[in-house]
Protein: F-box domain-containing protein
Amino acid sequence: MDAVQVSKPLRILKLPYVALRNIIMNLDQLEVLDFSFISKKCRSIIKSTKFANFTVKLNMQTAQCPFAFIRERKTICEFSTEILKTRNRYMNGGRIALSQYSNDGEGICIECAKIWGDYICDIFRIDIDTLDLEPNQSVEKMISIAEWLNKRQSSLRCCYFYGTETNSDSLDRFFETADFSIQKLVLLLNQTYKISPLSPKILNVNCLWASSKNWRHLIDWITVEHILASNCVTLWIEASSFHENDLNRFIKGWLNGNNPTMEFFHVIVKRLDPDLLFDGIRYEEKDNSLIRNYDCKAVGVQYEFKGGFDIRRSDGRVATLQQKTHLQNPCQIYHFAMIVWPNVISM
Structure:
């Protein structure tokens, strides 16, 4: 009877650097995490490795995996709360109580998320790219997460708030506390009750996308005063309570020098009366045969301007305004859009 051949363990730490690097580069993110726990040397090796491009998302929504690794808009690996719990003994000497991870199916607690977030970002030498939060978190929790991000990074590419319950005080305190810049802010607030206008600081972002479910839950928590004072490049607002006088103020504000960085503005409204909309505004109406396109990469939309109304600011910048609707539109919902053309300085 032949003896069973027992393979010898591969002592990968004894391998030359190039061979060791090739092995590590073929590990997935969870395997990399586990490798880093073996020893200080292993953690140092991981930190010295340049991995293929991916981003990290921290998701604090109920019943969601707290950490996800994203490449080309696809999730390639996730760390669930259970995965983190089973590795609890490696974090701060296991001083995090397992009961602290979550409560009754809720998302990961903020303190655990901060500890794990710091460790994950450290070994992969990367910042949090995307943050998903529920808009009904307590004021204390919102301040805590904002203060943590203030200390660990200077910017956040994308921040999502979505849910059916909203605590406007908590949202205000988050943005008032946050010192880091936000490139894209998405507010999907679907509460069925009225909330107060949010802090003007929500407009201190490159792109704002604000959405509500339908016309019964209008977005009245973003006002014209918000828009006039904003530094946004892209503003995309759905189901808004704006009317002709509001948009007239916005257009005149732009003509007078407000919103100097704005490139694209979109809002869904009821049908607008052109006479009221353009009251006191000089414009040039373009024929519908003139078709101009704008690639709004921030929200992933190719927007077509067919004809429209051109206006010019005193510095020569030209913008086109358009009101359009779909053929089947029983609710009489209209898309009002304004594009500031980047290379046009005359009319």
Remarks:
- Residues 54 and 117 are 15 Å apart (CA to CA).
- The chain is about 25% helix and 30% strand.
